[in-house]
Every structure is written in structure tokens, then in C-alpha cells.
Amino acid sequence: MNQYLARFYKTRSGGTHAQEFLMQLDKKLRANMMSMITLLQEKGPDLRMPYRRHLSDGIFELRAKQGTNICRMLFFFCPDQTIILTNGFVKKTQKTPFQELYRAKKYRMDYFLRRDNDQNI
Fold first, then answer.
1. What structural domains does the chain harbor?
2. In a 3-state reduction of DSSP, which class is residue 7?
3. Confidence band (pLDDT; 50, 70, 90) for 93?
4. pLDDT one-digit tens code per residue, 33-91
5. Is 25 exposed, middle or buried (0-12, 13-18, 19+ CB in 10 A)?
6. CA–CA separation, 62 vs 69, rounded Å?
């Protein structure tokens, strides 16, 4: 099985929200999430619950927990075996916050629009 490549989505202004979120996590939780990203790259779409869950419309969440701290990284798959990590958040409620899911969908739409127009992504 070929490995997938995980990349951080880069906004038009150069921001990488998922990477910035990852770097703000405490050391142990960040290490846990990085392990989950590595596992996702190895397994791709074959990675299932409790590590990965489909949320809506091709947007997935990667799940990490360290003690009582729970965080999620949202992402989508590309046909060329690339995984685009869009944004992350610390989980405080049962449901994924609407604004986080909306942001991931907006980033995915922008990513494919820019890719199809041969823009720097």
C-alpha cells in the first residue's frame, strides 16, 4: 500500500491554520496529534474510528487525546494520495463547532479552485 502525504493547507495570504494550531498545543498533546498524522499517512482512508471520523461532505476529523485534553484536526483527501490538514480545535462540547466545519469546507473549496487554476497552493 502506498503512503499518503499530509500537507497543511496554506491560505492565499500564506497562513497555515492547522500548523499554527498544532504548534500551540502542549507538548504531549502535540506529540499525540503528530503520531495520529503519521498513522493517517500510513493508513489513508483505511484508518477508522476511534482515530478518524467522517463529519460531512468529504471533511474528516483526526482525533487525539492526552489525559482530559481532546483535540481534533480537520482534513480532506485529494485524489493524488495527498491529505490536506485544514484547521484544528480543542474539543469542549460533544458536537463539532459549526464554524470549524464551515472553515474546513471553505478551505477545501479554495484549495481545489486554486489547484485547478494552477495557482500556488
1. 5-116 (3.30.2310.20)
2. strand
3. confident
4. 999 999 999 999 999 999 999 999 999 999 999 888 899 999 999 999 999 999 999 98
5. buried
6. 14
Among candidate residues 90, 93, 58, 94, the one with its CA nearest the CA of residue 73:
90
> How many whole angstroms separate alpha carbon 4 and alpha carbon 109?
20
Q: Nearest Cα to 72, choosing from 58, 86, 56?
A: 86
- What cell was used for 5? 502525504
Q: What is the pLDDT of residue 32?
A: 96
CA distance 37 to 44: 10
Joined together, the cell numbers standing for residue 10 give 496554506
How far is 43 from 88, CA to CA, in rounded Å? 20
Q: What cell does 64 get?
A: 487525539
| SS3 state of residue 73 | strand
Q: Which amino acid is at 65?
A: K
